[in-house]
Amino acid sequence: MEKKSVFWILFLICLVVLPIVSAGFWENLQKSITGRATSQPTNVSVSVIGTNPVQIIYVQPISSVNPTEASYTNVSFEVRVYDPDGVGDINVSSVYANFSRVGESTRFSGLCPKISDLNAYTSNFNCSILMWYWDGNGVWNVNVMASDIGNKSIRVNDTTYFTYNLLKAMIISPNALTWPALSTGATNEKSNNDPTIINNTGNYNGSVSVIGINLLGETSPSYNIPANNFSVGNNDGVVCASGTILVNGTATTISGTSANRGNLSAGGGAGQENLYYCIPLVPNVPSQTYSTLQGGSWTILYP
Amino acid sequence: MRKMHNLIGIGVFLLLLMNFVSAFGVSSPYWDGNPVYIAKGETKIINFNVQNMVGDGDVNVKAIVREGSDIAVLKEGGFIVKAGSSDKLVPLEIRIPESANVGDVKRVKVDFMNSVPGGNGMVSLGTGMSVAFDVIVTEREKASNNLLIAIVLIVIAVVLIVYLVRRMR
Fold it and tell me: Which of B12, B31, B113 sits opposite A137 (nearest CB)?
């Protein structure tokens, strides 16, 4: 019976003391004794953010792309980013893309802007990447990156590929060759307005050929200087001695030449090749002017 | 800003190239090492994209099938490519005969030439591009067999329905 009384007394004490303590009794007591403030007002804002990472659920297929001569091709495609925590958790400043291929410079997009929300969890973005005329033809890999506000981890989708086509394109200067007056039997007579500068305005990366045509006499076309009297090369110093001999009406690969695919604006010979011309031995033909006037022009060819 | 720099760079670059002459380009979806697959008995149209983005005038281009003329025919043998254009399409029709063998490899080569008039007393120079690729003959797709199976199944179903209806009467 005594124990019961003690229990009820302790219970009543707890009932009275606990509210006092939890209401800051000791703090008030400390404050009144020391004068130190025990707390101060603080602005607190709490935003609920998702912990799930985003998923790049769709990258629009890109059909094969044609390079543009001496310029770039803007490749645009759609990307869909999904976040189980809702579109509000997608970091809209985190969506980027690039195109990559072994041995080539990677081409990067700027920030892919958000276009719209497809639903409460998926947003639609548009990425644009410039492909340059000298970028190599073949299969390129599309890499898309995105992250969210809550999880912050960057997610990558690299499952899409596209084909960048071959572009054979050039621009040459000058478009005609001349020689000084020649004498029959003269040797190693070089053109006096070469080289032909060949600017590669595409992404072809092979040799250069020339189709030579016999030069017919302008007065007496029955006489001609056969194409095989001409040698062509990319080295002015040795074109007469070891240049490639042309064949009438036939595409002849000029030894040692290359289209040198590259950025023409960079200078230093990128994207350029030079051709020099020589008549190693002037044939014994009647004196008159010989030209392509009647037989047709020669052709600089990317074979 | 980066795009603006690019545009300015291209503008200056194109102005420099305007001093050059005789320009055009040919873009192809197929090339050596990237063949086209066509089933025997089928026909495919391949479009070459011809461009003239750099030159200062229209370009007269002739196209000739140099190899594979037994299966490949150009729809246009000669055409003008407008200055500043990059959208000219030149279709090449490739027809694989029924008699071809699966796995046969046929080579197609098309030359595009910009011949310039030969001037007095000089050697005129034109430009040209060759586009070559392999055509690999494949088996015809089984779509027709599937269609046949579908027709047979539909006929069987109709017969069964008719039979059941008659039985019920």
Answer: B31
